[in-house]
Amino acid sequence: MRCSFLVFSSLLLANVASAEEACVDCADANALTVSATYTGEQWRQASGGVATGTRYLDNLDITIDADAGRIAGLDGMQLFAYLLYNNGHSLNELTGAAQGVSNIEATEALRLYELWTQWNFGSGEQSLRVGLYDLNSEFDSIETAGLFINPSHGIGPDMSQTGQNGPSIFPVTSLGARFSKSWGAWSAQLAVLDAVPGDVEHPDRTTIRLGKDEGALIVGEANYRSSAARVGVGYWHYTSDFEQHDAGAAKDENSGVYAIVESPVFADQSAGMNVFVRAGVANGHINPVDRYLGLGAVYTMKSEAREHQIGVALAVAEFGEPFRRFAASEGTATEEHETIVEMTYRVNVSDWFTLQPDVQYILNPGADPALDSAWVIGLRFEVGTQWGWPP
Fold first, then answer.
1. Contact partners, residue 355, CB within 8 Å, separation at least 6
2. pLDDT of residue 248
3. Strands 126-133 and 216-225, how do they pair?
4. What element of type H or E holds 195?
5. What angle do CA 80, 86, 90 make, to 5 degrees?
6. pLDDT for 234
7. Phi-psi region of 325 (alpha: psi -120 to 50; beta: other; left: phi over 0)
8. Residue 44 has what pLDDT?
9. d(Cα 296, Cα 276) in Å, to the nearest integer?
10. Of 100, 138, 249, 329, which sits 20 to 30 A from 58 (CA to CA)?
11. Three-state DSSP state, 246
C-alpha cells in the first residue's frame, strides 16, 4: 500500500481549515499550535577519518498539533502532523564514523515524517497513539542527552542499526500503534510497528508499504521516575527472519535490550548538573554492533535572559565477533570498538535563536584500522517560531 506525500498534505491542510471554522467559544489555551524550526550546521573535518573537508547540513521541522477536544468536541483526542526537510549533504563520507556525527544528517527529501492521532483516557493515565510514528520520540529517549548532537545519544546504535531500513526513527517512519499507561512513579509503554519504514529503494519518498513478509517490530519499555533518578528498561524484537553473519541461515532472533539511568547531581534556582548512562545489547549474529555504552554529564546555568548548557559525553559501540569474522572473510579488517567523545556548549541568544558549538573526537572511525582517529568541529544554530490559535 502506497500513500503519496501530496495526498497526506491535502488531508493535513483540510484538517487545519476545518479547525479554523470549528472553534467559536475557545478559552485561553491554544487549540491549534503550529511550530517551525530551522536548524543549520557548519562542520569541519579537521583531521583523520576518510578525508578533511567541510559540510553544511540543515533540517526544517514544521509541526501541527491540534486538540480535537477543543476544536471538535472529541475529548481526549489529539491530532499531530510533522513535515521534515533535509538537504542531504553527507558529513559521514568525510569522517567514516559508523555512529555518525550529526543527528540531522539524512538523504535529501521533503517528507511527511509523522501523522498520528492519540486518545487519552483513564483520567489521562492511559493513551493510545496510531499512525506514522517516530519510535524514538518516546522510546530509548533520554532528556539529559538531548543536548548532544551525536546520533548515538538520541537512540543507541545497538537499536538504530537494526532492520532492513532501520527502525521507525529519523528520517523515515512507519505505521504503528503505541499504548502507554502510568501509575504513580511507574510507567510502561508498548509499540507495534511495520518493521520496514518507507521504501528501501527510494529513501527520499514518503511511502507506506505493508508487506506480508516484512513482519513487525515490537518494542516495550518500563520506567520508574522519582526526584532522585529515572530508571528505564526496554526490549525490542523483530518478528521476521534475518540472515546471520556466521551461519547464513535466517532466524527470527533479531532482538535486544537496553537500560537507562539519568539523575540530577545537584540543582538550585540558577544552576544544576544532570548525568546519564545508557547501555544496550543486540544479537551479534545478525547485527554489526552487539554492545553499546553511552554516558554523559550536562551542566546548566540560568539567568533572566539566558540559559547556558555545557556537556561532555562518551559513546562506545562494540562490533560483535560474528560480524568481524564475516568482514575478515570478505577481506575487510575491523577493529572491536568505535569510540566518540563529544564536547558541546549551547546558549539561547534569544527566544527564537540558539547557538551551539560542538567538538567530537572519533577513535577508530568505522572500526576501520586503515583510518586515523578524527577531529570534527561544528557550529549548530536554530531559528524557531510558534503560532497558537486562538491567539
1. 346, 347, 349, 379, 380, 381
2. 67
3. unpaired
4. none
5. 145
6. 98
7. alpha
8. 98
9. 6
10. 138
11. coil
191 close to 177: Cβ distance less than 8 angstroms: yes
d(CA 60, CA 35): 11
Distance CA 102, CA 80 (A): 26
Quote the pTM value.
Answer: 0.90
Query: What is the four-CA torsion angle of 52, 354, 110, 62, rounded to 10 degrees?
Result: 170
Residue at 138: amino acid letter:
E
Name the DSSP class of 172: B
What DSSP letter does each residue of 93-143 carry, written as one string?
HHH--SS-S-TT---SEEEEEEEEEEEEETTTTEEEEEEEE-GGGTSS--T
> With left for phi above 0 and alpha for psi between -120 and 50, is residue 318 left, alpha or beta?
beta
Cα separation, 140 vs 258, whole angstroms: 8
Of residues 104, 2, 125, 108, the one with CA closest to residue 43: 104
> What DSSP assignment string belongs to 200-216?
TT-TTS------TTT-E
Q: In the prediction, which pLDDT does 208 show?
A: 79
Distance CA 83, CA 66 (A): 15
Ranges of the chain with pLDDT below 50? 1-27
Q: 113 and 131 in contact (C-beta within 8 Å)? A: no
Cell of 98: 559508523
- Which class in CATH covers the domain with range 5-389? mainly beta
pLDDT at position 216 is 95
Instruction: Provide CB contacts within 8 A for 165, sequence distance 6+.
Output: 172, 196, 197, 198, 200, 203
Residue 89 is which amino acid? Answer: H
Q: Compute how many other C-beta atoms are within 10 angstroms of the C-beta atom of residue 384.
A: 14
Shortest CA distance to 84 belongs to which of 255, 224, 203?
A: 203
Q: What is the pLDDT of residue 28?
A: 52
Query: Is there a contact between 204 and 86 (Cβ–Cβ < 8 Å)?
Result: no
- Determine the distance from the C-alpha atom of residue 287 to the mean position of all C-alpha atoms in its chain, rounded to a whole number: 19
Domain locations in the chain as residue ranges: 5-389
